[in-house]
Amino acid sequence: MKNCLTLLITFYCSFLIGQEKQLYLSRNKHDLTKSFIFPQKDVKLIGFGAYHGAAKTEVAEIALVSSLIKNNNLRYYIAETDIAIAHFLNEYLASGDEALLKDLIIHYGVRVPQERTIEVFEKWKALKKINDQLPADKKLTVLGPDPIVTYKYTYKYLLSLITNTKEWKPAQELQNTVTMDTTDFSPYYESYSKSQMVKFIADFEENKAFYFPYISDKTKFSYMIELIKKSFGGYNRENEIYNNYLKLYDTYQLQTELVYVRYGFFHIMKAKEGNAESFFFKLLKNNIYTQKNLVSIIGYLNQSEVIWDDIYTDDGNYSHSTTSREGTGDSNDEYFKGIEELKKQKTSDITLFQLNLPESPYRFAGCIDLIEIITPKKSDINYAEQNTVSFADYALLISNSKASRSIFSLQ
Description:
42% of the residues lie in helices and 14% in strands. The chain is an alpha/beta fold and 411 residues long. It folds into 2 domains: 31-147 and 237-409; 151-234. The longest helix has 26 residues, at 2-27. The protein is globular, with a radius of gyration of 23 Å.
């Protein structure tokens, strides 16, 4: 009898909490398929992340970024890439060169393969269209804090800082390699491009006095050398993202700006998950931002697919495989705890929920809805004394999305 009473009380309490969440969510949701104003004003850093590879994630991002540009004076866009690829994304926004954009997405996708897609290509075209309408002092600047992704655009960026390659034989060799474009430019094994870069840096460091007159921006060039040398050995990616961001933060005086970050959702979690320290957690831990002016938006997929891999078909074309089960966080055997509450309250296929208001039930100790993943294998992460809002401020529910399509199938 006592056990039955305990179960009944537990069920009743769960029911009441569920009702409270439903009421709260119904009052604090925004339809991103319509014009909307982001609810918070005194924000300096806004991060958005979701599982990679769903087509509507890019649609959701455009809606979010458009609002932030229009209503919050957004000027800086942090992409999940390195400084050189970011530099040439800025060049695309200025020139509209779509051949360049396609190649950038192919190389960007070396680190994030599920975003090597037509939808990401179209997202950047949409961003360019928005950017073209802005006055010169309001245009977006793209920045990349990741460790080096591939050497191709590292080569090109280095070469853009050299005024005379005729007197710099190793620089000429880099130029020849870029022009031929027949290597994979990989920094992840002892590739031809890595060995060439090792020789280039060794020669530069031995003959700095001779080469310095041929460098147009010595500060940028020195920083690139530092990043390249890091790529020769092992490193902790999250630490490097954080350190590189601090460099950008100082260079561009980002403390006075609103900055938008598009990264995978682990990187934008505000609390440690187990012992893992994310990029955003490091920013908070080291007082670069405060809890109030750093905002995290995590995207959740509902009845959606993601691209899984590229497939080279027998007829010499590219296709891709998809999945609506693994890697979506919304399958019968792998789902985010509490995602059903969002589904009941969605107003469109792209619905944003604010979780961080003072009265939010997502602040209750022990409420780790939308953070803990329920799987047959029990997680060994201890979420004691944490709650949903300690990790994220908003949930963006993306429903009925097709998988993104491989960029290699773009004609």
